[in-house]
Specification:
The chain is of the alpha/beta class and 466 residues long. Helices cover 41% and strands 16% of the residues. The protein has helices spanning 15-18, 31-39, 50-63, 75-78, 88-103, 119-123, 130-146, 160-168, 181-204, 227-250, 255-267, 278-285, 349-362, 390-408, 451-462; strands at residues 8-12, 68-72, 107-113, 153-158, 210-216, 220-222, 291-295, 300-303, 310-312, 323-326, 330-332, 369-374, 413-419, 438-441, 446-449. A hairpin with a 4-residue loop joins β14 (438-441) and β15. α3 (50-63) packs parallel to α5 and α7 packs parallel to α9. It is globular and about 55 Å long. The termini are close together.
């Protein structure tokens, strides 16, 4: 199978997971700093030291056919408390980074928010506080104007669904609240409103280039061919996918989306507050979304469930330890014959193909799609600088084949960004869960190309999925 000649073969990173230098040159704190200090398990310092090593990583991109890179700007490097005067050292760092991208002929796709709200705003309620929306839009406007000559592709938010699941449902992200689904729904709506207002600012400022959003999409399938499982799958689909896709492309929530969201909220005695101007902003911004970024890692098979919520997060790679039962929605079945990673993530490329078909069918006003994250967390074996990661190659190959099939069927997919370019710090999993094309020795910061890096280079050069 082949990919189009102009198809981008990229690599993805995120500021907090890659940069390190968490206090360097005036950078402000984020909630993760305090959260990780209290846990005492992992440190984001130095991560992959991208703050100092980016010339090395971009040279590797050029050498290995990686012609696009997802980079996020750390909000707290630009505005240490989220608001106020900009920090010039932080501003200058991203100018140097984008200049290096251009020199190496690697197209930067720049995300404004990747799970790292400045701590002062996070403590005040994060996006549950409407002041954070205003602060985000001011930050976005600053970045648009500051970097407009260096950046063509802008992304407002990365994964609105998972960040709110982590903060308010699984409790694995700060502020570590569990099972508060109404908070998650409200915050998702508010973040989509912030996205819309940033898109409108982009248009108002006449910034050259394109703007979009990255949504993490997961297939939600009934585990059994019975009506209760079908409804449970539909309920989780609304919470994880449909609510966010409706807001992105329609600027409104469909009748079925509202009905199921209301059913979920009733199970928790909650409600969604829609503030004045929210829907107007969403409706107007829907016209200006230039692309959708799709992060896809897994799908789920859902059973009906009527008990209390119970979630056990597999953060160590102990296979078979995951439990996910959510009151008012359903239960994920992990005991099936579908291959899984050590972190119990189902390896199901068919789910990506189904999702791409769905976007084309259900949201025909979409313009184009980039697969902005996809990859396999793996316990890489390092032997004298040799890293053979055949399972990762097989994983990526099957997902690229799904993408090629979607393109043949008329879905406009323009690029793929493997998560991740190099090994990075992995939020609640620390450092033992590696995703990179390039192995990072975190003690020396030396990079080593994995077997997958050489394979990826061949695919990039030939566009043949071998």
């Amino acid at each position: 199978m082949r990919l189009p000649e102009d198809f981008i073969m990229g690599g993805a990173t995120a500021a907090y997971q890659a940069e390190g230098a968490v206090t360097a040159d005036g950078k402000g704190r984020v909630a993760w700093d305090t959260y990780l200090e209290k846990q005492g398990r992992f440190s984001p310092e130095p991560a992959s030291d991208f703050y100092h090593q980016f010339p090395v990583d971009l040279k590797l991109c050029q050498q290995f056919g990686v012609n696009g890179i997802r980079i996020s700007i750390a909000w707290s490097r630009i505005f240490p408390t989220g608001t106020g005067e900009p920090n010039q050292a932080g501003v200058d760092f991203y100018h140097r980074l984008f200049e290096e991208c251009r020199m190496r002929q690697v197209e930067p796709f720049v995300t404004l928010h990747h799970f790292d709200t400045p701590e002062e705003l996070h403590k005040a309620g994060d996006f549950l506080n409407l002041d954070t929306i205003d602060a985000f839009v001011r930050y976005a406007r600053f970045c648009f104007e500051e970097y407009k000559d260096q950046v063509t592709y802008w992304i407002t938010f990365n994964e609105i669904g998972p960040v709110n699941f982590g903060q308010y449902i699984t409790g694995t992200f700060p502020p570590s609240i569990k099972y508060d689904v109404p908070k998650a729904i409200q915050s998702m709506h508010n973040m989509m409103t912030a996205h819309a207002k940033a898109v409108l600012a982009f248009e108002e400022l006449h910034i050259p280039g394109e703007i979009g959003i990255v949504q993490a999409l997961e297939g939600k399938y009934p585990d059994r061919d019975i009506e209760k499982d079908k409804e449970a799958a539909a309920m989780e689909d609304v919470l994880c996918n449909k609510m966010l896709l409706d807001a992105t492309f329609n600027g409104d929530y469909s009748f079925d989306t509202k009905r199921r969201l209301n059913n979920i909220l009733r199970a928790y005695s909650g409600e969604l507050t829609i503030h004045s101007g929210d829907m107007q902003a969403l409706k107007e911004a829907a016209k200006y979304n230039c692309f959708l970024g799709v992060n896809y890692y897994q799908s789920h098979f859902i059973r009906a469930y009527s008990g209390d919520s119970l979630i056990c997060h597999n953060g160590t790679g102990k296979k078979g330890s995951s439990i996910f039962r959510l009151k008012g929605i359903g239960e994920r079945n992990f005991e099936n014959d579908i291959p899984k990673t050590d972190w119990d993530w189902l390896i199901y490329p068919e789910g990506l193909l189904d999702m791409l078909r769905r976007v084309k069918k259900d949201y025909p006003n979409y313009k184009k799609i980039y697969i902005t994250e996809n990859g396999m967390g793996y316990k890489d074996d390092f032997e004298n600088g040799i890293i053979m990661d055949g399972p990762r190659i097989d994983y990526v190959k099957k997902h690229l084949e799904a993408i090629a099939t979607a393109i043949e069927e008329g879905v406009n997919v323009k690029g793929y960004f493997i998560w991740s370019l190099m090994d990075v710090f992995s939020w609640s999993n620390g450092y033992n869960k590696r995703y990179g094309l390039f192995y990072v020795d975190f003690s020396t910061q030396k990079r080593y190309p994995k077997e997958s890096a050489y394979w990826y280079k061949r695919v990039s050069e030939t566009k043949e999925i071998m």
